[in-house]
Amino acid sequence: MCSLQFVLKSRGISQYVVLLLNCWFICLEITRWVICGLIGFLTGLIACMIDIAVEKLAGYKYLAVKQNIEKYTELGGLSISLILWAVLNSAFVMLGSLAVAFLEPIAAGSGIPQIKCFLNGVKIPRVVRLKTLVIKVFGVICSVAGGLAVGKEGPMIHSGAVVAAGVSQGRSTSLKKDFKIFEYFRRDTEKRDFVSAGAAAGVSAAFGAPVGGVLFSLEEGASFWNQLLTWRIFFASMVSTFTLNFFLSIYHGKPGQLSSPGLINFGRFDSDVSSVFIVFRGVLGALFNIINYWLTIFRIRYIHRPCLQVMEAMLVAAVTATVSFAMIYFSNDCQPLGQDNTEEYPLQLFCADGEYNSMATAFFNTPERSVRSLFHNPPGTYNPVTLGVFTLAYFALAVWTYGLTVSAGVFIPSLLIGAAWGRLFGILLSFIASSQSIWADPGKYALIGAAAQLGGIVRMTLSLTVILVEATGNVTYGFPIMLVLMTAKIVGDYFIEGRSRIPGGLYDVHIKLQSVPFLHWDAPPTSHWLTAREVMSSPVTCFNRVEKVGRIVDVLSNTSTNHNGFPVVSDTTENDEPGKICGLILRSQLIVLLKHKVFVERASSRLSQRRLQLKDFRDAYPRFPPIQSIHVSQDERECMMDLTEFMNPTPYTVPQETSLPRVFKLFRALGLRHLVVVDNENRVVGLVTRKDLARYHVGKDGLEELHLAQT
Amino acid sequence: MCSLQFVLKSRGISQYVVLLLNCWFICLEITRWVICGLIGFLTGLIACMIDIAVEKLAGYKYLAVKQNIEKYTELGGLSISLILWAVLNSAFVMLGSLAVAFLEPIAAGSGIPQIKCFLNGVKIPRVVRLKTLVIKVFGVICSVAGGLAVGKEGPMIHSGAVVAAGVSQGRSTSLKKDFKIFEYFRRDTEKRDFVSAGAAAGVSAAFGAPVGGVLFSLEEGASFWNQLLTWRIFFASMVSTFTLNFFLSIYHGKPGQLSSPGLINFGRFDSDVSSVFIVFRGVLGALFNIINYWLTIFRIRYIHRPCLQVMEAMLVAAVTATVSFAMIYFSNDCQPLGQDNTEEYPLQLFCADGEYNSMATAFFNTPERSVRSLFHNPPGTYNPVTLGVFTLAYFALAVWTYGLTVSAGVFIPSLLIGAAWGRLFGILLSFIASSQSIWADPGKYALIGAAAQLGGIVRMTLSLTVILVEATGNVTYGFPIMLVLMTAKIVGDYFIEGRSRIPGGLYDVHIKLQSVPFLHWDAPPTSHWLTAREVMSSPVTCFNRVEKVGRIVDVLSNTSTNHNGFPVVSDTTENDEPGKICGLILRSQLIVLLKHKVFVERASSRLSQRRLQLKDFRDAYPRFPPIQSIHVSQDERECMMDLTEFMNPTPYTVPQETSLPRVFKLFRALGLRHLVVVDNENRVVGLVTRKDLARYHVGKDGLEELHLAQT
Question: Domain CBS: where (chains A, B) (predicted)?
Fold first, then answer.
């Protein structure tokens, strides 16, 4: 597959060629760095744009509603305010939902499950197109401004990935424009590398956590740890957070005061963590996932028409506004207005002058701000009852919201629920321990609670710890946060999903619902005595070195065997005995060959015909035409095709006695898609694909699968 | 090699066995976590111990010298003070150097090159023994307390690695004690995983940078990115920094005030980085490496007797004291003593009352404190001339010191030189730009200068950025630090070493000097048209499935072919034609088999003989007896040995046309040591080992090697 192997088949090259090649490799590497820088820059810009747009829109909305409420508080027609609020919310959400439902359904949700699959090596159509990006950005602005219980952080990861895919390919199908640059990178592995850089840049911009971004990409995507690649990913992340920081500082009128590295900033915590505790919040997180699982199944079954989806989204928006309003209305938790006035929209409502309604702080605000106030407001800001009711209401809303046909993330709602719950716990603890000063700061409980809730929902341990540590800017919190996340994961994994058979994190739930052949990190422990022979697909469709065009077309057209890779064998196998392996050729390569009619007969008859070049393969990437679109006449069907110079001459093979864990390791470590299984005469006996492996990877259900395999 | 494959050869196992196995795997995983926690805890404790010991000893020393100086400043016999200082320094250094030179020479230096090699898969004898640890800790306390231009951070990494190797094996050869626990982990791969966790814990304790530690381990060691392993490494790092933090807070009398996560803390920087610049400091870093390279060669040639080594170390200590004293003596840079009194040992000398000698701040202090004051002292604290002279003197001392027969790290001296130089630059810039406030804080230049100097010397980009970002506690500095490090690396790599043929970083210099077969990340770019056939060692010594004991003994005893892995072939090869591959057996396995005399004849004659078990292999690990120690009688030489059930039945193989980059990738991604090369009949034609690959990996010398390969 490597172009060099194509070009330099002939040996005895002069030293100048070698020198030239060296230069070429250096240029290539520099280009990769430049692309990564661009990816980071553009991702940072997009994050900045989203942030400013949301802030402006939400600002106008809250101002209008606030003035309206203030007007009607005395007059006594608050239902009008409620209606205004609900209508404003629904209008925003409708816009976003319409765009998503009718123009690009793949832009719904946070996009993280899709990116996880993409990085895992599973192709999902349309996920990294420019159109998806535009809809996503528009959708997320609408849904956050519309007051839904969602965050704008998850979509940033998807946005970064799309930017990366677009920039690195140097062309856009949506715009029908080919810039004729970066053509070397038009292949799966390179594209995937850039997409992981983009995802990292997205995380970095969302949370101001460049290292967390790198670890996220590695945790989800990379299998082979390549140092240079990691540096590039890190570079993209750094550029991204720096760009965001820089432009936001200009927007806030303080250029150079780089104080907002991410879309959400937790503010700084000091180092005193003597008051750290561990909450077993995995249970609540798991509950979230289970309810959401059933809800999503319900949605897949009944709400599959775009109109219905838009209406559901609007309904949720209106209900959110109503619930918020009711909570604020019925709460009588008044707090004195501080002179520093940290609240941007303090609602007085029925409170005395100089006081404000504290429930309104939580609801009448973008979720990011609410999280910050839960973390940092001084003790005594919140009434425990207020917090309790808020947690429950927000939990219900968040569960309902995730999975709607809008672009939205689940990070911030999780953090908010956890922070509220954690702060509540902290307040209760301080009641019990009365006047002990070490229990003094409920903001820290809020932080730990937020970590636990988020961990229970998404079940990432490593990258999440780093993201949270970077967001708090204090490494001392790392250890408690890590313990909490691990506890949440273990509790969630073993006590809840272990029984209900719903996979771990929320993203895995959604991946499972889309039934994607997702490969996990390790082979299941019970697979040690399964061998390649039992896992492989067999019999395999093989081609000869020189194969009849008719047979190739037939095989490719046969929908029941839609394989993507075909072993090439050396001698014809008349008597059903498998032939000796001599290469592997991909469906896409065959299609390009057929399209250009690279037949043996033609080559000899018309010498002038231009040789097929690497460029032809690249230009067709990544949307190879389907076999049906290629017309092959009856005459041509009788021609022969010589696959020798196009196939991969040294595909990875394993003997059929190889154990499943070893096969698994090869797949993961080398990023394989096909592995040829041979007997000890090097004859092809089977082919292991991702699907074969994914079938055997079921974690706790290993027993059952084993049983199936043995019968 | 996997025990399961040994145990469960027979199929049709009941479900209970599967359940049991599942439990066993979970137990194993829990044990791994417990071990990692222990590693982190012990590493943190050791770091704490070193810190306290150094602080106490250095404190006594400086106090004594200070009193002496104060006494003689007026009397006028300062040469006595100088002698006192030099003697004290030399005494400390002598103790440390004696221990290292006579008891455990491998404990010299920072140990980072050795750990790099270990993680790369190269075995270096005695590097992870308990004795090495004890000497290392003692040595580093002595050399830092002895005032050498060294740091205690590098040795922490080595210490962490030794702790890990010891704890994970559950026994100690130095103590001759076997705790009979963790026997499952007595194998190369598991041990290496734990050692990487230990190294990470060491970095984490040294710099308070747990994420940096993880990345260091990954950058240097891991090739296959395993998620669970990374979590464990992260866990060990977290525990380590937390332990250190906790115990130091108790030591400082403020339990719970967790403010010292690492041995060195940069203190907190605020976010205003508008005054960031890039210094091309790679040149100076490279200069350091080149001088040190020649010096080390000189040392290897001439100073190889322990006595000489100790004397050199003492000489350096005395010279350091003299130079420092002279600098302080001839400097007349007096600064007013602030009321906050940040200096611990302010020396008045010839300054007016209420002032102190600012040169003394830099020299009369542990290097960690000096770095901190360079970063954080307010503008105007230092005179530019003082700084310039200090930089030059300290540079010379540091170059001379690294490579002495003492335990010592190079991080802190590099940081100190860079910080001084950077601050100097900052001050000069503020002279030029006169009263502009944005150039105001030279402390930031100090930080950037420190990063550049360190980057130029050690040439790590990724993990160093993260370590420095974590140490400063501000993610905003990440981008400038990364740019500086990259610049330093590029400048250093291309403009200096590109011509002088000395490899990149200081550690690589020392690795090269020890001529270790170190594998880099990628195959050299010019290797694309080399194939496995040209790289492999050939002919290969193969064994038959059932082989004569005499032949095995002869092959193992033959020192000219000291291979470690032998392919096992199916049919005897009388006519020199290679046999078909059916397995791979290791030297160590053969030795254990010979030791236990597992001969075919014996098995049939004495049925009562106990079967050889996995345990026998584990107990012998890692110090397998040499072949000479195994006595095989003439009769026994005629016996046969059946290798079938002990060999690895499915070794990784490649066809001989495989390109070198692909071979390289397999080696790195799967952590191989041997790769069997076969022809298309599956006959063994060669064997690729690490040495074969290392020979072809020479970066910029690719041309020459290629030439060699073609002739």
Answer: 647-705
